Amino acid sequence: MFDVVAWALYGETAPRKRGNTFRGLLADEVVCEDARGDCFVAVDVEDGGVQYRIERWRKVPKGGYRGQPSGVALLRLDPAVPPSGAWADLSRSDAKDTQADVDALLGMDVETFFETVLFGQGDARNFADATDGQRKEILTRILRLSAIDAGLSRVRAELAGHDQKVSGLAGRKREIEANLATLRSFDFAAEIAKWEDERRLAAEDKDRQAAAGEVTIAEHRKAVGQEAGYRTLKATYEERIAGAKASLGGSEPLRVELRALDDEIGRLQGDVARSRGAQDALRRQRAQSEAALREGACPTCRQPVTDDVRQHVHGSLDEQIAALENAAGPAATRVAEAQRRRVDVAAQIEAAAKAAQVSVEGDSRKLGLVDASIREIDRIKRVIAEAERGLGVIRREAADIRARENPYAARQRDAEARVAEAEKALRVIEVDAASAEAERAYIAFWEHGFGARGLRSFVFDSVVRELTDEVNRYLRVLTDGSIWVTFDTERMGADKKPREVFDVVVRRMLPDGAVRERSYERWSGGEKRRIALAIDLGLAGLVARRATKACGLLVLDEVFAHCDAEGHDRVIKLLHEMARGKESVFVVDHSPAFQARFEKVVWVEKWPTGSVVRAA
Fold it and tell me: What is the pLDDT of residues 189-198, one digit of tens each?
């Protein structure tokens, strides 16, 4: 029945640590063993005067199967709604979120519920009878110390990582220090000075070449400065040659006179030739006339001719011939004079031509020399242009030489920069290493804190003090204060090192006032059972105080087992005291001997067809 309550509240039944099975059944099968049937459970709880209802159900599909997931609902009663109030649904869409709200409402999770409400169903049951190792395991579970173990594992993992980091930083630091030593050994001062000397000499050599080039160009420019004079001379010579060539045929008056003389001589010679032709014609006529006259007849008419006629004819012809000869004489004289003058004029023209030819030849030679000089100047100009280009190249080379960076200086700067960078990296690594060491120390602190001598020991010690008080409070009721217990959490090992244990040491006051001390394991009978019950109840109370809310329900399963008669009375007395702080205390037991000691009795009879519940 109480398993049904646990399933309704949490969807689980004890003991959860064994895979959520109980007597071979899954959680929902504890409520309804018929895998093909549906089931529904509702539990009402009250918190702060407000009534809540938690519902859980199982819907099995056709055919059914084991482990069917359950549904859960959280309801709150609103009493203002007539006639008897109405339930408001507080459920969420996700069953996990609804279950979290249920856990918050109850103020405890399922493990705490089994330890504190269903007493005897959790890990605290029979704690005293467990071995030392089992006790530590039980305390670890019920006190949730596994989180400390998980923290220790995490801290150790981080510590290992930091050790690796610190080792890596140390290795990196050694590398950088070795690199720094190598870089600091680099000194390029000698190479820098040698290279600078070579650069200076090379630049000075280029300067000398440039100076020599400038001198050469200056000298060439002096020669080029004579170009204007040479070109003036050339123009003069060309003008003189042109004039001389123009006078090769003589001066114009002489040539005009020569042409006039030639014309006159030709005319006079024509007159003389015509006069001589006329004379020859007349002489032939006279000769013919003489021949005819000698025959005594006229050659024309063949008439007889007298001497008078003959004298008259010959005289006329002679007169004509004489006249012609007289006329030709002066003409011949003039021809001779003209010819003499022509010879003089031609001689003058020839002399002038020779003089002009001599002048042309002389000036041409001079002009050739001037042209050669001008061509030389043009060549010198080209030489100057080429020299200026070469001079520009030399000057640029000199500038390049002076502007060129010293490679050894660059190497020196690079080495210095690398030294600075390495020093910076070293400082960073030193800072990181110091930080890592500090962080490692911090993590090491937590390793100790999470270790056996740290937080776990502190929790155990504080729990032991609290548990000792709680257990002895129960023992004062169960034994009238004659028995009390202490818990030893540390024992020296064979290696002389303290080891974590959890021993139960029981002390008893004897009638003579003496105190007997011995371990729990050496006790037997009813006293041992009462001691075990006190310890189990003390653990349950310890867990209950760690819940966020107190539960008014307590269920104890077979709490009278192995108790003697006195023990039964003491346990019932203790239950009555515990009931003062609870709304309901249930004791589950198979013996009917204790019925009269309780206010209400509920019988649960189990039959093959199912269980029957009835009130006594």
Answer: 889 899 999 9
